[in-house]
Specification:
The protein is built from 21 helices and 20 strands. With about 550 residues, it is of the alpha/beta class. α9 packs across α11.
């Protein structure tokens, strides 16, 4: 006989969970007690949104569900920010919520929330376990749902009385991963389309990739000389210095890249949904009927034909498709080889940082230095804001599992994601980028890095404004500044107050030695860059935007 809390932990152990991210609550004390005797590491966070983002990051980088525990009511509602990210980004994660006891349901009891209603549209599945003996069954199902088809977040509600009650339940067994493979008929149809194509283009995206799948597809792309772009914030899916790489199909893409996609006669969309942002509001691929012939490969049949009507739909995971495509090669040298080379050359020019800009700190030379100084295996995490343009355009990603950034565009993601990434890969360099507004949404998770000795480096790009909103404001309502100014603390002093390392950069030349000191400190570190607000994008200043509306 074991209580529900013990059964929950046993089910996590059976499914290979190594760590959980949590904010403790009295509603799941029985689980916390069971974790005391478990080998699972408990990482105590500062706010539930940050904890859920950490769980999302683990799912994003590893393909295994990240696990988060929060308490009822405000704990659960705080965590919704991370759940929404995991849903839009197709990241496997499981959020466990302590719930009120069953005797008090439907009375608006203390912190009572109906989680099926609250999470109904932003989670893949929501379930409440009302009997302890069903814990092995339903937790195993949660792992299956979170990882199968299009991965996503599962929310599991745990009534307090269930966790305390005892049951003679069966031992939990690990979930069975489901791999969807393409049929030979579909692969032959793909070969026939490629044989007739003159201007093909490949877009990689989505989840359910792994290191082997990325390497396998890269070899196939080379064999076929296919030009390859990566969808928004999925840049770790292809080596940016490979001669087939054509660029980031994200926000504000290289105009030559956008033109090449529009002009393509065949597009292979592998693994992704290609939503509003990467499609430039459905102009690169028109919805529902693209101008190009479209081959859409996705692990979830429900995504095939939902937004785009494909010429050929292949229901397969990226890994299974890459393996099936690997044994095929063109019968003659592809006619588009020169076009692929031209697109790669255009990418290299587009991704070369500018040397000059307004103010005393130039982000272009800083990005050049980071590309040279950071190892290829370094993990870059960020949230949302104009500062992120410097990463997406100028960081040349080389390896899988080196990027943690929300395609949903959520702010506050970089710092908690960096904490999770360093916990998962302690031997690797982990750098978080954040704007001053972005950092302050979850900057308190820097304290989590301190507590667990996780020496991340957080680069806070401080321009004293909510930069993206200010940019749009100057475009739509020039000179009428409203609601976008920020008064900020000394971020380097913030780091030192926690016991970490802090640096302030006010000139470009200060950055490299500041970074090296931060890295050598062996502590979690914050490097604050004082950026002129005029340096709003790599190509345009705020004044340009205001005057050229």
């Amino acid at each position: 006989m074991r209580n529900g809390g013990k059964l929950i932990v046993e089910a996590l152990e059976a499914n290979g969970v190594e760590r959980i991210f949590c904010v403790p609550g009295e509603s799941y004390l029985a689980v916390l007690d069971a974790l005391h005797d478990s080998a699972i590491k408990t990482i105590v966070c500062r706010q539930e949104g940050g904890a859920a983002m950490m769980a999302d990051c683990e799912g994003r980088l590893t393909g295994r569900p990240g696990i988060c525990f929060v308490t009822r009511g405000p704990g659960a509602t705080n965590a919704s920010a991370g759940v929404h990210i995991a849903m839009q980004d197709s990241s496997p994660m499981i959020l466990f919520i302590g719930q009120i006891g069953g005797h008090a349901r439907e009375r608006e009891a203390f912190q009572e929330v109906n989680y099926k209603r609250f999470y109904g549209d932003i989670a893949k599945w929501v379930v409440e376990i009302d009997r302890a003996e069903r814990v092995p069954e339903l937790v195993g199902r949660a792992f299956s749902v979170a990882t199968s088809g299009r991965p996503g977040p599962v929310v599991v509600s745990l009534p307090e009385d269930m966790l305390m009650s005892e049951a003679d339940a069966p031992a939990a067994l690990p979930f069975t991963p489901v791999e969807t493979r393409p049929g030979e008929e579909e692969m032959q149809a793909l070969e026939a389309l490629l044989a007739k194509a003159e201007r093909p283009f490949v877009i990689l995206g989505g989840s359910r990739w792994d290191q082997d799948a990325v390497a396998t597809f890269q070899r196939s792309a080379e064999s076929w000389a296919l030009p390859v772009g990566c969808s928004f914030r999925r840049q770790m899916l292809f080596d940016h210095l490979h001669p087939c790489y054509a660029g980031d199909v994200g926000i504000g893409p290289n105009p030559k890249l956008a033109a090449a996609i529009k002009d393509a006669d065949l597009v292979l969309l592998i693994g992704g949904r290609f939503g509003e942002m990467p499609s430039s509001d459905y102009t690169l691929l028109k919805s529902p009927y693209p101008d190009q012939k479209l081959v859409h490969i996705h692990a979830d049949a429900n995504e095939l034909g939902r937004v785009y009507r494909p010429t050929l739909a292949i229901n397969a995971t990226p890994a299974a498709f890459a393996a099936a495509f690997a044994g095929r090669a063109p019968k003659a040298p592809p006619a588009w080889q020169d076009r692929t080379a031209e697109l790669h050359a255009s990418y290299l020019a587009w991704s070369t940082p500018p040397e000059n800009g307004p103010g005393d700190v130039q982000m272009g030379p800083i990005m050049t230095w980071l590309n040279e100084a950071l190892p290829d295996e370094a993990i870059i995490a960020n949230g949302a804001g104009n500062y992120a343009t410097w990463i997406h355009r100028f960081r040349r990603f080389r390896r899988f599992a080196t990027q943690a950034a929300p395609t949903s565009g959520s702010m506050g993601y970089g710092t908690p994601a960096a904490v999770a990434a360093k916990a998962i890969y302690p031997e690797r360099t982990v750098v978080a980028f954040a704007g001053d507004g972005c950092f302050q949404m979850n900057g308190q998770e820097f304290g989590t890095a301190i507590q667990y000795g996780l020496p991340i480096i957080v680069i806070v790009v401080n321009n004293g404004i909510y930069g993206t909103i200010r940019m749009h404001q100057e475009r739509e309502f020039p000179g009428r500044v409203s609601g976008t100014d920020l008064v900020n603390p000394d971020f380097a002093a913030w780091a030192r107050a926690y016991g970490g390392h802090g640096e302030t950069v006010e000139k470009t030349a200060d950055f490299a030695p500041a970074f090296e000191r931060a890295r050598a400190s062996g502590k979690p570190a914050i490097i604050e860059i004082k950026l002129d607000p005029e340096a709003i994008t790599p190509a345009r200043t705020l004044t340009d935007i205001r005057e050229k509306r």
